[in-house]
Amino acid sequence: MRVYKKMTADEIQKLMFGPIQEAARKAYGDQFEYGELPPEEDDEEEPEPEPLPPPPPPPPTPPKEPERVTGPLEWCDLSELRLTMLVCEFKPVGVNRNFHLQAIMARMHNVFEHEPIQAKMFLAGDDSAVFYEKVKERVVSGKVHDQKKPFASFPPRYGCRPTLEMIEDKLNSWFGMSICEENESYPTGLCEVTDFRLPKAILEASGEEQEGNGKKGEIKLRKKTSLIHHQQKSKRNHSLLSQIHLSQVQLQHRLQNHLLQNRARLQRKALRKLNQLLLPRNLPQSQLQTTLLNLWQNPSQLPNNKIERFI
């Protein structure tokens, strides 16, 4: 037979927690046996607690100290924080060490508009607002800055304007820069000391090639026929008339153009060429000028075989 007994939450709490806790603190069978409820206590009205006294007034806040403005050659916490952020962006060791140090020094003196939004903490009130608006406009529009236009820069609110030597001394005090430099990897052949050599493309264009002598360390220059050298040599040794096959009319027009451009030189050259190829070798000097003028005015009188020889 099962007996169901309705109990309130307070009765369950007294039954489960009261006897167990009392039994844990007292010897067995001193007051009551297992299963019996402890005697109910008379509910007496507790006296109302006395009101607490009002809290004392807070102490007066001390006046805010003005921000300490350091000199241009004196480090402060804000300038050191700026240097730490720049070192994470520009690694001051390795092949690009000098370029990165220059970039760090430039950004220590100015905050540029293309920097991250975290650089806002290094600016004063008005400059901070303008910098925030520029960064917001750049992020929202997604436009790329025109490289021809300079970036807007803002002076930081810290007073330190470190030199390159100050930055190097500060990095040496923070890190072992010599150890970092030794552990840095360089491209193969970058640190080798060799004689200066022009690139191969420039050597081929100028027609000169450098060859090093491993025994004596001497450099020998050797002429090499290239396209530019060949063109220059062709212009010196061959005239334009000997390269192009011209008809009789074209020959006349070409000779006239050359005579107009450089009359004195080309006239002597043309007369010498005509005298050698077209005229008899033993022609008297008195008849030479008359014959040349006739041929000049009437080039159709020239025989075909001699025209081919002349060309």
TrEMBL record:
Localization per Swiss-Prot or TrEMBL: Nucleus
Primary location group: nucleus
One GO cellular component, as annotated: nucleus
Acidic residues bias spans: 38-49
InterPro entries, per database record: Eaf7/MRGBP
One Gene Ontology term from the biological process aspect of the record: chromatin organization
Segments for region (Disordered): 28-70
Keyword DNA damage: no
Record keywords: Chromatin regulator, Nucleus, Transcription, Transcription regulation
Comp. bias (Pro residues): 50-63
Coiled coil: none
Keyword Transcription regulation among record annotations: yes
Family: Belongs to the EAF7 family.
Protein name: Uncharacterized protein
Source organism phylogeny: Eukaryota, Metazoa, Ecdysozoa, Nematoda, Chromadorea
